[in-house]
Design a protein that fits this description.
- The protein is mainly beta.
- Helix content is 3%, strand content 26%.
- It contains 2 helices and 11 strands; from the N terminus they run H-E-E-E-H-E-E-E-E-E-E-E-E.
- A 4-stranded antiparallel sheet has the order 1-3-4-2, with no helix packed on it.
- A hairpin with a 4-residue loop joins strand 10 and strand 11.
- The radius of gyration is 19 Å and the shape is globular.
Length: 257
């Protein structure tokens, strides 16, 4: 993923950064020969949710004011190197990690890859249907809210959204980038994300898809050019479709995203 806006750099400057050969994703936000800054990895851990359904205050923690939204998943950006450290004690259940790729010729071979915890707290919902190789979360995708890519309506580059399939957590998640005035020493500002929404499906969500074409326009109100998020609910034989938008009427300009 490019969380630093490297695609906006001059080609000569971007040459110092690693280049994409094949993003390997069904959701294309980077093309061949684009520079990238981070490698996004999920742990797909088999940690089961409390059968009582109760959650603690810590499980509802978030990096932003989202008191009106309750979820067991917390988005944070506690950075640590790839070697064990005390910061890793904050990991709870399945997690989404971002590894910053060292810059410079062959630096990826010799320099440490700094790891940041973007989100943690993903738990498997124990069901008969997901007893084979259960884990959470699943695949991760970076994508932009509009077809135009990283350049928002304010003409500035913005970090991508992150889509996350919960797999046996039985939900899909969308994370949005946040900006903080101050960060702790060693933290990676580019990996600061907060939970935007959770789509509870009550079934396995192994993957996601994102497109920008208009969908079923005769009955579904939507804004052209904005992302459509496709969420497969495996055991229910359904695919849910959600459309992003500016949050305003078509004739009203929005700020950035």
């Amino acid at each position: 993923a490019d969380l630093d806006g490297l695609t906006t750099m001059q080609q000569a400057d971007a040459a110092h950064y690693p280049m994409v050969v094949d993003s390997g994703s069904t959701v294309v936000s980077l093309n061949s020969n684009d520079a990238f800054s981070h490698l996004l990895v999920t742990s797909h851990e088999c940690s089961y949710a409390d059968s009582s359904g109760e959650t603690t205050d810590d499980q509802h923690a978030s990096t932003t004011d989202t008191d009106d939204f309750e979820s067991e998943v917390s988005a944070s950006s506690d950075s640590s190197t790839s070697v064990p450290s005390t910061a890793q004690s904050k990991i709870d259940g399945g997690s989404l990690f971002a590894y910053r790729v060292p810059t410079g010729k062959d630096a990826w071979k010799t320099k440490p890859w700094t790891r940041s915890v973007i989100a943690t707290g993903f738990k498997v919902q124990g069901q008969l249907s997901n007893m084979i190789n259960p884990g959470a979360p699943g695949f991760v995708y970076s994508f932009f809210p509009t077809r135009e890519g990283g350049i928002g309506s304010d003409k500035k580059w913005h970090r991508p959204l992150i889509g996350l399939s919960g797999d046996c957590a039985e939900s899909a998640y969308i994370l949005r980038p946040i900006e903080e005035d101050t960060i702790e020493v060693g933290e990676d500002r580019s990996t600061k994300y907060a939970l935007m929404c959770e789509i509870k499906c009550s079934s396995t969500v192994g993957s996601l898809a994102v497109g920008y074409d208009d969908f079923y326009t005769t009955v579904a109100e939507q804004q052209s050019g904005y992302a459509k998020i496709y969420v497969p609910c495996y055991e229910q034989d359904k695919v849910l479709v959600f459309a992003l938008g500016s949050g305003e009427d078509e004739d009203v300009m929005d700020d950035g995203w």
